[in-house]
Amino acid sequence: MVRPLAEALRKSPLFFEPVPPPARTSAARAEERIVEVTRLVKEVSRLDAVDVPELVDENHEGRPFYRTADPRSYGRAVAERTGCEVVVNKVVAHLESGAALKRWAEETVREGLRHLVLVGGTSRYIPYPGPPVTEADRIVRPIVEGAGGLLGNIAIPFRAGEAHRMLAKTRAGARFFTTQLVFDSDPVVTMLREYDALCRRASIPPAAVLLSFGPLADEQDAEFVRWLGAEIPEVAERAILEGTDPNAVERSFDRAFQVWGATVEAARRDELAVPLGVNVEQISTRHFEPARTLLLAFAERLPEPEPSVI
Questions:
Q1: Residue at 152 is within a domain
Q2: Is residue 216 in some structural domain?
Q3: Residue range of the domain that includes 251
Q4: 295 falls within a domain
Q5: Does 246 score more than 80 pLDDT?
Q6: Which of 31, 86, 275, 277 minimizes the number of CB atoms within 10 Å of its CB?
C-alpha cells in the first residue's frame, strides 16, 4: 500500500537504504543495482521509502572523496520504475557555500526528487566550507516544502546533547531523523526521552525518528560500521560476532529485533509522542540478500498501514 510520506511518518514508517553504485562503475553494473532494488521494492508492499545515501571519505583536511556516484541519478531511476517515495541524502559540509546548497536543492527538486536528508561533516574540528546542518535546513526547507516534499537529518543517539540538536533542527524544518546504525537501546531511549521533553516544553510536534539496523557478518562489517560513525558496544559486538560466521548475520538480526522491541516498549511506557520507525541499511554490496531478509522481517513486525481517509 503506497501512502504519502507525511502520513507514513506518523505511524511506523519503514525505509530501505541500499548501497548505490560506486562513483566509477559500468552502466551495466549500475543497471543491475537498480533492477535488484526495484524487485525488492515491489516485493515489500509495506515499504514507505527508499533512502539513498551519499558515501564520502574525507582526508585529514576534510576534503571529500565520493565513494558513490551522484545518488540523485540512482534515486530517480528507482522512483521512476517503482513509484515508491525516494529520499536522497546530501553531505552539505562539502559544498562551497550556502548559495551552492540552494542551487543543488533547486536542481534536485526540478529532477522530481523532493524528499531530502541533509548530513554534516564527520569532524567538529574541521572548518568545512558548507553550512552547518541547522542552517542548511533553513536554506532548503522552503524549496523542499514548496515541492510538497519533506526534510530530514541524521540523529546520533550516543552523542552528548543530541536531543538539543534535534530540537534545533526540528525548528529549522526537519520532519524526520534516521539514526546511525544502532546496536543498543539505552542511548536511543535516553535521546528519545530528552527530545520528547524538549518538544513538549517548546510546544512543537516532534519529528519522526527511524532507527537504523543492518546485517553484520564479521569483523570487517564491524569496522566499516565504525567508519560510518556508529558505535557498537563491546557486549553487542561479542553477541553478534562470536561463533561461526554463517550464524553471525542471524545474531545481528536478533540484536536488531531486541533493540527495536526495547525502544518501542520504553516509548509506550513513558508515553512518548515521538513517532518511531525503522530504516534497514544494506551496509555493503555483499549484503543485499541479508538486508532483504531483515527488511521483510521488519515489514511483518511493524503495524500494517491504515487506509488513507479521503
A1: yes
A2: yes
A3: 5-301
A4: yes
A5: no
A6: 31
Residue 57: all three cell numbers together: 571519505
**Structural domains counted in the chain:** 1
**Three-state secondary structure string covering 68-134:** ECCHHHHHHHHHHHHCCEEEEEEEHHHCCCHHHHHHHHHHHHHCCCCEEEEECCCCCCCCCCCCCHH
**What stretch of H or E contains 211?**
strand 208-213
Predicted model pTM: 0.93
Q: Kindly list the distances between the CA atom of residue 42 and the CA atoms of 18, 292, 298, in Å, as whole numbers in the listed order.
A: 15, 12, 16
3-state secondary structure (DSSP) of residue 56: strand
At 160, is the secondary structure helix, strand, or coil? coil
Encode pLDDT of 137-155 as tens digits.
999 999 999 999 999 999 9
Q: Which CATH number goes with the domain that contains 104?
A: 3.20.20.220
Of 89, 57, 45, 47, the residue nearest 70 (C-alpha):
89
